[in-house]
Amino acid sequence: MTRAPYLSSRLQGFGTTVFAEMSALAVATGSVNLGQGFPDYPGPPEVLDVARAAIGTAHDQYPPGPGIPELRSAVAEHVQRFGGHAYDPDAEVLVTAGATEALTAALLALLEPGDEVVLFEPMYDSYAAGIAMAGGVARPVPLRPPPDGAGPWTFDTAELRAAVTPRARLLLLNTPHNPTGKVFTRAELGTLAALAMEHELLVLADEVYEHLVFAGARHASLATVPGMRERTLVVGSAGKTFNVTGWKVGWLCGPAPLVSAVRTAKQFLTYVNGGPFQPAVAAGLRLPDEYFAGIARDLERRRDVLVEGLTAAGLPVVCPEATYFAMVDVRPVQPDGDGLAFCRALPDRAGVVAVPTVVFYSSEHAHLGRHLVRFAFCKSDAVLAEAVERLGRMG
Ligand SMILES: Cc1ncc(COP(=O)(O)O)c(C=O)c1O
């Protein structure tokens, strides 16, 4: 007899993601899909051309487990160029299958069953699953929207402190933050660093949106706060910076003993990935400063188009400081305040697809995200204009 249910108890509750449901809905209804966060425009030719040229060469075979030396050096140079530490490309950099594998491998490598992970929510959806796969326990702390809709999301320090128990092992921080668009300030990073040091926490810093930051905000890595380098792993992703989310090339940097632990887990997950993409990402990371400033300026313009359109459609937005997402409160146009119901009806009401933010919350705090919905603005001018026009005619 086989044993049912087949899904292990560790993964109970992690069904098919709402992203898949909403993307299918977009296709079925011919809606403009502002749900999933992937750009509909290509990456820089300097990067794409290197990948094309690498296919059909030795890059098609297994790269070295930690990543090709050229990419590890490019990661280290890039991190240092943008204000991070000097990392040794051989011992302190690991190339991964996207940021997702870096995060999951780190959780699998660093957590004992029952170890607790302190993190903010709403949270990127792979965190809770990664913690569960590692046998850990998530201790989510809610970020709070500004009461009058203006200004950044914040957290309550007492609430944060209360989430840190003697079982706490790791702090997982995502800045710039998906889905709120918040960039944690230097002062907030100082509070988090003090807490990590006081409780001897390891830190996993998901900084995949490091370059998608708009005027008025400034990204700083938690690893750069004094005392944090030796306990922090910083995670990055080529997908976000070079518009190549399907390549799934990511990396992490940190002190050698932590990187070595993660490498042990990673080698049995994928071992390696993205052979021909690795030299291409190396070329991308070496692009001049202007490329990185340019993508932020470009996205800021797209943000403004969408935020203006959402506001005009009667959907209040907390204007994102970074990333390619904007979150709205649906209550003015959905009297029961149900963001999931709003998203399921939006293709009929407006021919647009978005994702309900409730899926970024643990069940404990789901009520805080029930009325929130996320729209992506990493879309071409024509697509954004069409979405805004349709939202303006929402029934
Ligand atoms: C906060 C955050 N971390 C990690 C990832 C995953 O990155 P990758 O596609 O490189 O695995 C995403 C993708 O949306 C994200 O938003």
UniProtKB/TrEMBL annotation:
The record's section on InterPro entries has: Aminotransferase_I/II_large (IPR004839), Kynurenine-oxoglutarate_AT (IPR051326), PyrdxlP-dep_Trfase (IPR015424), PyrdxlP-dep_Trfase_major (IPR015421), PyrdxlP-dep_Trfase_small (IPR015422)
UniProt keyword Iron-sulfur present: no
Q: Which domain of life is it from?
A: Bacteria
- Cofactors required: pyridoxal 5'-phosphate
Q: Which family does it belong to?
A: Belongs to the class-I pyridoxal-phosphate-dependent aminotransferase family.
Q: Name its species.
A: Geodermatophilus obscurus
Q: Where is the Aminotransferase class I/classII large domain?
A: 32-391
Q: Which GO terms describe its molecular function?
A: kynurenine-oxoglutarate transaminase activity; pyridoxal phosphate binding
Q: Which GO terms describe its cellular component?
A: cytoplasm
Which keywords accompany this UniProt record? Aminotransferase, Pyridoxal phosphate, Transferase
- List the Gene3D superfamilies: Aspartate Aminotransferase, domain 1, Type I PLP-dependent aspartate aminotransferase-like (Major domain)
What name has this protein been given in UniProt? Succinyldiaminopimelate aminotransferase apoenzyme
